[in-house]
Amino acid sequence: MDYERRFRRAGLPLFIEDYTAAGDVFNRAAPLLTLVFIGEMLGAIDLDWSWVANVGAAIGGLLILLAVFMLANRLRGRPATALPEHVGPVELAVFVLAPGLLPLIFGNQVQSAIGTVAANVGLLALVYLVVGYALPSIVRGSFERLGDELALSVATLARAVPLLLLFAAVLFINTEMWQVFSGMPDPFLALLGAAFVLFGLAFLIAQLPGEVRRMETDFAAGHPLSRRQRVNVALIVLVSHALQVLIVTLAVGAAFVGFGMLAISPGVQESWTATTGDVLVTLDLFGEQARVTSELLRVAGGVAGLSGLYYAIAVLTDATYRDQFLDRLSDEMRAVFADRARYLEGRAGSS
Q1: Which residues sit opposite 290 in a β-bridge?
Q2: Which residues, other chains included, contact 63 with Cβ-Cβ below 8 Å and sequence gap of 6+?
């Protein structure tokens, strides 16, 4: 139906009535699951064996997987070689458990068996999230709106500039900031960046239920959403906001790299960090050398991360920025909710 195609394109497949994992998620991913299932015959091999033994084990593993598949078919009263019409609980159980038997049969590799089962469970969870909630459609729609998102980010950022730039500039020209970030080990720097991302996501996720309820109240037109549908709408808001935060973070980082190239001389950096820096790029500008050092990238990245975190929080807590961010998204969601109301009314009339 046209409405159902619109819901999928909008990244809201859960608006389709009778949307099921077997019929709509795992069936779509069946080719991938089949490829992985066959490839897991390699779980029978052991690197300590000769190549001849490993080839024999791989072939034996494939035969065992096929035998398990055929046995499952016969137990359900279907032809042994019949392909599944839908991927249901039995097929998923075979996909998860059968490959885990191979390391046990060939070499009693218990840890490998547990790892294979855990990896298959993780793959199914990822497939359900990506396909079931149409993450590719959500991301594609966000990138299609990238120009609008950029313009909206710049407009919102321009209103936040007095505080944000003051906050960021004070940090950037702070001696302690350079000493901390230039001397921080790479693993700790990565952990700190991950902490910024996780804290921002945690704050945003905490705000999402209220935003979804507001949209449902304003746009649902007497057709309340189910829990899974609310999650689907929340993902739309999450991806849209995360894209804006990413744009702002990259822009702030690039701006301070440019500023640092011009303003932070080798002498200044040496007085702050006791080293002239690890020079990565040198540019000749007006007879002078502008340098990009690893320390400059670290400090600019730290300031950008803190600025992105500030922006993520300000957009959803300050009424001025919040309304500006949500206006365009609300217009799009209003149209999709209107389609859903007509879709449900049409199904009720057909019934």
Answers
A1: 283
A2: none
